[in-house]
Amino acid sequence: MTAYIVRRLLQGVVVLFLISAVTFLLINLAPGGPTSAVSLGRTAEEREAVLKQYGLDRPVLVRYFDWLGGVLRGDLGKSYNQGLPVSSLLVQRMGNTLQLALSALALTALLGVALGVLSALYKNRWPDHLISSLATVGMSVPAFWLGIVAIIVFAVQFKWLPSSGIFTVGQEFSLWDRLRHLAMPAGVLAFTLMPNVIRITRSALLDVLTSDYVRTARAKGVSERVVLLKHTLKNALVPVIAILGLITTVLFSGSVVVESVFGWAGLGRLAIEAANGRDYPVILGVTLLVGAIVVVVNLLVDVLYAAVDPRISHE
Amino acid sequence: MNSAIQSSSAPSRPRSRFWLRVRRNPVGLGAFLAICLLALLVVFGPALYRVAPDATDPLNILAASSPAHPLGTDELGRDMLSRLLYGGRVSLAVGLLSMLVGLTIGTLAGGVAGYFKGWTETLVMRLVDVFMSIPSFFLVLVIVTVFGNHPLTVVVTVGIGFWAQMARVVYAEFAKYRGREFVEAMHALGASHARIMFRHIFPQVLPQAVVLATLGVGWAILTEAALSYLGLGIQPPLASWGNMLQNAQAYLYSNPMLAIWPGLFIAVTVLAFNVLGNALRDVLDPRN
Amino acid sequence: MAKGIRWKFSGISAALLAGVLSLGGVMAQDYDPNATLNLATNADPTLNPWTPGAVVESNLINTIVFDQLVRYNKKDLSPAPGLATSWKVSQDGLSWTFNLRKGVTWHDGKPFTAEDVAFTFNDVVLNKKLGGQNAGNFSKVKNVEVVNPSTVRFVLSAPFSSLPYYLAYYAGILPKHVLGDAENPLQVASFNKKNPIGTGAFRVAEFVPGSYVRLVRYDKYWGGTPKINSIVFKIVPDPNTQMAQVISGELDFVGVSNPALLAGVERNPKLQVLRQSQNLYYFVVLNQNDPRFRDVRVRQALLYAIDRKAMIDSVVRGYGTIATGPIAPLQKAFYVKDVPQYTYSPEKAKQLLAQAGWTPGPDGVLQKDGRPFEIDMPTGQFGYLVPATLLVQQYWKAIGVKANVNVMEWNAYIQKMFVNRQYEATLAWWSTPPTPDVTPYYASAAADKGNNIPNYKNPELDKLLEEGLKATGVQEQVLTYRRLQRMLAEQLPYLYLWYPDIISVRNERVGGMADINTAAAFQYSSEWFIKR
After folding, report:
1. Element (H, E) at C99
2. What SS3 state is found at C313?
3. Backbone phi and psi for residue C84, each to the nearest 5 degrees, phi listed first
4. What is the pTM of this model?
5. Which of A39, B284, C49, C309 is in Cβ range 3.0-4.6 Å of C62 for a Cys bridge?
6. Looking only at Cα atoms, what is the longest distance across chain A?
């Protein structure tokens, strides 16, 4: 097992290296430059002075290895447009994205599994149809559109929830306040993520419910509730855990848009700001961080998978 | 005569089973018909409804529905109906084409990796890992920023955001069949690798690929819309449902219909593809 | 510098003028000294007015935190005392002496002196290696000398009559005792992103990146204790969300980027919609390096073809007036109206093009020497640029000129159009301080590399621009700039489209904001108050 984990981590490092190389070369091909240098009204002289400060007058490869050397020493460089170390920007934004992502994930997992179970238990009856219709709708509605509609309804029309931000500025910390701010963005994200979980839970549960040992248990007169809880759910969770890895990437993708709609200062918005402003070190930092998270989550999922399901072994 | 009867009767059983499953799945059928209808509408609609989608009329902006403009006009006085039809062409084309890009790259890469194993497998599957590790939207964001938002760039980029998933599925299937006896037998009989891959293994993989591809169309349409929301999708003067929605942002309070129409078309289209994909999964998957 | 001034908060309508003025005295006791004012900005600001990249998201906060030598007069935007109480220019126009205000302290309690002014200019603005934001505005300044602790002298290389205007235009003074030892005073993160030191009415108390910047009043402010306890700038990137927040009362004041967003507020009794003009104009430029556009008749024809009234009605929902030149009507002393107007007339456009040798081709597109009249017209994803460009495309199509519009992402567009000048026509805008001097945008020296986007070169114009800069008396200036405006309207180096109204929405609980202009209003933040 240890050997397996070490091997996967090494592979992960190679993957991250490739990501960084590709992103670095790509982003340097992009037309334009950091907005602090390239903007309407900046004369050629000012522009060149600023680009020189950033070292952008040097060849791309030199800059890449320079950057890579920095990364190996734990230095991700400095943001061109913000003037802050990239690492500090990432730390600030990471916390916010984690809050949002974990809430959305928890909501997705809880509601998704519950609805999936319900769906399986009422297979082909109306609750099943209702839930699967909802799930399909969830997959089909643009997340940003849902977010905007939610703002119009819950923030503008009824004034139940704040339309953006992470907490009320100038107020003492209050859990209630945080939750109110989280409700819409996490809800929208969860709504778009949930269909996968519902579907997988449902089909896994159906597989298990029709399996021999559950039939045996039923035949022995074990009550339906015990069958469900003790025998079925645990086994049905295995495939759900399996798709957590996939969900993590979808979650990050979804957060790019949702963070923009709800003014949530997370990694997704940082990525957009950096891409628009050609803030190369920040783009690279975000890509690297998100890549690392996905690598680690996938590894965790596989390890967890093996732990829950004894049939799988990572020799 | 004789052989004709034979050849027609032999495969008729699986085919009738297929139709039986289709008939048992009216929702899927409905989705399929909806997609056909949408396709007809956007392909032939503009020929019947001859109003230019880019003709501006600043004196008649944000007009309500009227005989001249059945769905009213947008913020530049352009005809909404015409834009929806033309925009649908673009959105559906982007969806289908990027899915094809993803399907082609994914199938080729996954197939080769699963069939030949060895270093090809390592190379391709690590690349798949790389792509699976970058949330597709980050990737798409970077590529569109770099290469500009020419419609082709958008199509290829959205397709690239999708190929890795396809490759992984195809790879698993190819790897599974690679070891089967019939493959060994074909090879012993002198069939080329390409022939074995395309004639014999690929058809086995096709059902799964079709399901993924159908779902992929919906995903691609949504991705283009999200890119448009960030100003990176298909660009005007070309209309797409995505950029129509983006334009409508400023008019959410005053003219919500500007946003509701394209939003509705996106939702219905994606919904239809998703429902169809799920239905196909039920119909084509022999395990059901 | 010009990017999206109109995305920011702006001024107050003349309609409110009377109301606010009459409140002045009466309100003195009725304000809440513990109140918080909620404002918005669209991204994390950089709290140093000269740092490269400190633009729209930073300008207003910096205006509050950092005082400038000169402010705008609240009535007519003429230069008025700020940190400088008075100034005098030498006979040859090459030396300006500024007397500084006494008893001013920095937010850390240290006294403000002439050394700070000299540091700000000599070591920061005029240090070419730093590439400071807006530093190019002071290219005629050689250096700043300290005469005594409360007097400085600006030494110029050429006459620069609009120096005081530029000193009031995002030109905050920096503290030498804090930044003097820094290797690059523009890139001190602890200053720019956390704890800047200014002399303004409010000081920064808290900066939570991505969320908000909280300012609290500076009790020892030289202009008297501010009447509001704190100001919070929330970071809200989406204009729809900003609008939703002003409607729900979470924000007190926002600039409105698109008048269409006003639909939700026009009937709200608690909100006031403010219309204000600013020295800002939209234009189409025709690249003068393309010989087709050097013919003045072609430029005039392409302007005649555009129905600017209809464009204003649709693109900015009527919130704007037709532009006649670079000097906006708010510069009452200089603006002239009796110049060629180019009222919409496709017929005149066609006639002029025919005179210039353009004849209808087989497909309806004009041609000359067998080449069709096609124009490569890139545009960027920003504000109204795309819809306005699409309208222009349709107007030109109607007279047989084919514009190939290419919509680009903003940064890529700037690179192509502004840096590389790879365009034949494009639509953009300039926002400038309220001075009649337009040298940076029109001088031949600024073509191809500087802000002369159309690359227009005209020695006669250059001479007029120079005369304007040398003019010492107001009367002399007025005459010169009238001639300048006529010449520009006839020659059309830029095709002038419109002066947009700057729109903002304000909660009625806010009082004491100067009426003329947002930039000016924010220079007098100590006078703002929140009604009880």
Report:
1. strand C95-100
2. helix
3. -95, 135
4. 0.84
5. C49
6. 86
